[in-house]
Structure to design on (829 residues):
């Protein structure tokens, strides 16, 4: 078989042998061109696809103007389908519905009566229930269509004619935009403000050499019917210059104070976003804990406008919650602009100036043809009036002649011959009514003729001068702007979306973070706690349930990253500001709402980190005395759900983590009052998943309670569960090799109880001590005696019966361990 056609001899000669590749290629090209030209892409001149054009023209033909009664949509759809668009009633009705939706089109073209859908994605009622008619603006698009201004073509069965384009006084493609998917190409043109578009076109008419920057002085950005906010102009400039670009659109929200909390009110959403689905999406984000701080969500929208209410939890930062919604939901979307349209019956991606050029050229053609049509009509009418004037000037002889004429044909021939009239003039005289012989009618005929001569002269001057045609176009645009224009709905912000980050919204300040035994977390300012003298009763740091108690407390800056190490040897990553803020009496938020923890997993240690430096390490200590050193950089990118920090043996837990420089001495203390000091150089660096080596050998029933680094100018503070404590010089702890049992750190008795915590402190530090029942006391470190190792310490806090100390944190006067300024001690109460 060859690629050439090889007709098989048959009676009808209808079978043609072809290579299947050639047939498929040709058939697909024919199909694709049919879709591109006849279905999916708008014409750059009137901004309409064939189905839109047929609906508008069909309604115009039915006389459904803006000042006429509504008619059933079923009647419209049936008429359009039967005459012009035989592709199914649903396609026609969907088109009609969209042109009536004020949330889909910037300037609606059809006036709908009944249920035409909603921004929540509700479908329109069936076409038998709804009614429609043209909007006055749509009539501007159809104006002058009966003046031979646009070409007509046969309809699908050749029985009627339909316009291939509409005259379109309105720059509809830019005003209402368009979207469609063809074969191998797509268009997505955003809507714009009518006033701005008219202003830009007028500027182009006056200055043909204008640039995109000049046009953007009039059209700064798209203007969506649903409002919203556009972030940045770089993508808009790209689209207007090249025909392609991306625009970031955000919902518009305000913050309201409600009782002791705040709530976000969403009044506008991005274009083409389904409000009901957006609300469902936000609810799912709250359920999945991707967005925290939201307590309630409801839709209070009505016919007066959109109002979606997002109630925030007490202490939640509205800016942070809003930024999370922008990041994770369709409250922020990207509109990809592809300015593709049919120009000269070919698909072309055009810049903004190209759209305007084609529209102005189309209007020049329409105005020229309309003027020529009006001139032709005026000349014909003037010609007839000239014949009537001749007849009136010779009325008596003409009447006498007509009385003598044998028939109409003879009368017409005589008038043409005797008075040098045309057949049209002679026929007009014969058809003239006797009432026009009155004096007033004669004067009116002469006046009409004089007016027509003036009009003819004016129309000829317009056709002879292109500038007059452009002036007419400008005046029409000014009238459109005055009659149909409105204010811009979409706000434009010069700052790009990528420049607005969540952390920039947060004020840098030191916070106290508390963790309870049952897994509740909160943050509050350091100023909440006022300094007291040693032996005071303290204040309430957190309300807890009867079976719960505060277990850990630390100080960190809001911009710090927190590495949250759990008892199961995993680490999670979070910013301090992402922890919900709460009052002193609040129990806080369940940690499982902030982190993805396993059922038996709880946070054991939190390490605030400003930046992940290569020369720093994390030194990990477990309850069974195992230690491990891992570079800090290995913890810079935790995954969702946490990553492994250390591999634990059975019944072991991670108890302490220290940030080191690789050269420091470490002291590990136990519950029974022992401690060991060794250099971290004894432990080689290991990977995250390593198990570690022995740091201290434990006696029966003993366990590690904590660890600290030996720091110059500081001493070792030890606190016991019954509220006793002491400070001891680091020099009293000899440096030995890791793996020993250590020396006595504090004398453990029934009076002071087991050791529960150690800290490295200096004189101007202040301590926050927390008990099981949530009582806190803030004590200057210099009020605790510096005594030897083998002592039981002094009383620091008076405990109620059954209460015990659970944790200790250091608040330093000048700066904390991470280089962040901390507040000075508050006045003594």
């Amino acid at each position: 078989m060859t690629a050439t056609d090889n007709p098989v001899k048959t009676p009808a000669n209808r079978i043609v042998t072809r290579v299947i590749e050639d047939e498929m290629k040709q058939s697909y090209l024919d199909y694709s061109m049919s879709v591109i030209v006849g279905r999916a892409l708008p014409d750059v001149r009137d901004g309409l696809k064939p189905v839109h054009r047929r609906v508008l023209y069909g309604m115009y033909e039915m006389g459904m103007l803006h000042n006429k009664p509504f008619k059933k949509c079923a009647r419209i759809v049936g008429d359009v389908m039967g005459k012009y668009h035989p592709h199914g009633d649903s396609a026609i009705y969907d088109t009609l519905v969209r042109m009536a939706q004020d949330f889909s089109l910037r300037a609606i073209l059809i006036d709908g009566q009944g249920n035409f859908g909603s921004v929540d994605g509700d479908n329109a009622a069936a076409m038998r229930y709804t009614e429609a008619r043209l909007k006055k603006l749509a009539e501007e698009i159809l104006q002058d269509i009966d003046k031979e201004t646009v070409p007509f073509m046969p309809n699908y069965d050749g029985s009627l004619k339909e316009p291939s384009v509409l005259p379109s006084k309105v720059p509809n493609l830019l005003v209402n935009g368009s979207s469609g998917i063809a074969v191998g190409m797509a268009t997505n043109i955003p809507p714009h403000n009518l006033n701005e578009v008219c202003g830009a076109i007028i500027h182009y008419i006056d200055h043909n050499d204008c640039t995109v920057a000049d046009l953007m002085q009039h059209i700064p950005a798209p203007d969506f019917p649903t409002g919203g906010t556009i972030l940045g102009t770089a993508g808009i400039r790209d689209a207007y210059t090249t025909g392609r670009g991306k625009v970031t659109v955000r919902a518009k929200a305000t913050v309201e104070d409600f009782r002791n909390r705040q709530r976000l009110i969403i009044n506008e959403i991005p274009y083409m976003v389904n409000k009901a689905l957006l609300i469902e999406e936000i609810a799912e984000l709250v359920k999945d804990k991707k967005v925290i701080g939201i307590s309630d969500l409801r839709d209070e929208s009505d016919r007066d406008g959109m109002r979606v209410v997002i109630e925030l939890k007490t202490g939640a930062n509205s800016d942070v919650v809003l930024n999370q919604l922008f990041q994770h939901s369709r409250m922020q979307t990207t509109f990809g602009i592809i300015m593709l349209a049919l120009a000269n019956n070919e698909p072309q991606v055009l810049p903004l100036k190209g759209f305007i050029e084609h529209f102005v050229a189309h209007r020049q053609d329409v105005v020229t043809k309309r003027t020529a049509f009006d001139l032709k009509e005026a000349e014909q009418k003037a010609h007839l009036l000239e014949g009537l004037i001749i007849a009136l000037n010779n009325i008596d002889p003409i009447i006498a002649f007509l009385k003598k004429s044998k028939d109409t044909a003879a009368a017409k021939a005589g008038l043409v011959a005797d008075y040098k009239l045309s057949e049209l003039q002679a026929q007009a005289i014969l058809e003239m009514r006797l009432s026009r012989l009155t004096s007033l009618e004669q004067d009116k005929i002469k006046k009409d003729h004089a007016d027509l001569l003036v009009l003819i002269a004016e129309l000829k001057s317009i056709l002879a001068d292109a500038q007059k045609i452009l002036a007419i176009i400008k005046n029409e645009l000014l009238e459109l702007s005055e009659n149909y224009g409105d204010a811009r709905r979409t706000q434009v912000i010069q700052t790009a979306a990528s420049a607005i980050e969540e952390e920039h919204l947060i004020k840098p300040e030191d916070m106290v973070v508390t963790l309870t035994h049952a897994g509740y977390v909160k943050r509050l300012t350091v100023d909440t706690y006022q300094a007291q003298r040693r032996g005071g009763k303290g204040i309430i740091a957190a309300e807890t349930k009867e079976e719960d108690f505060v277990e850990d407390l630390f100080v960190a800056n809001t911009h710090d990253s927190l590495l949250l190490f759990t008892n199961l040897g995993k680490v999670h990553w979070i910013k301090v500001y992402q922890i919900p803020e709460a009052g002193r009496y609040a129990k806080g938020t369940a940690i499982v709402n902030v982190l993805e923890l396993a059922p038996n997993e709880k946070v054991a240690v939190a390490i605030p980190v400003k930046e992940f430096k290569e020369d720093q390490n994390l030194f990990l200590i477990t309850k069974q005395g195992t230690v491990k050193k891992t570079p800090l950089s290995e913890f810079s990118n935790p995954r969702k759900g946490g990553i492994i920090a250390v591999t634990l043996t059975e019944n072991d837990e991670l108890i302490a983590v220290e940030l080191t420089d690789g050269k420091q001495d470490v002291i590990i203390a136990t519950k029974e009052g022992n401690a060991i000091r060794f250099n971290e150089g004894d432990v080689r660096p290991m990977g995250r998943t390593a198990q570690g080596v022995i740091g201290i050998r434990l006696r029966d029933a003993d366990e590690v309670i904590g660890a600290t680094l030996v720091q110059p100018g500081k001493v070792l503070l030890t606190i016991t569960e019954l509220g006793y404590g002491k400070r001891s010089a680091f020099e009293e702890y000899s440096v030995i090799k890791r793996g020993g049992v250590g020396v006595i750190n504090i004398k453990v008795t029934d009076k002071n109880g087991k050791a529960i915590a150690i800290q490295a402190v200096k004189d101007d530090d202040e301590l926050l001590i927390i008990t099981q029942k949530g009582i806190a006391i803030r004590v200057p470190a210099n009020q605790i005696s510096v005594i030897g190792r083998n002592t039981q310490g002094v009383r620091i806090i008076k405990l109620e019966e059954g209460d015990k100390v659970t944790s200790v944190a250091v608040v330093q006067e000048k700066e904390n361990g991470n280089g962040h300024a901390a507040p000075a001690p508050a006045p003594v109460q």
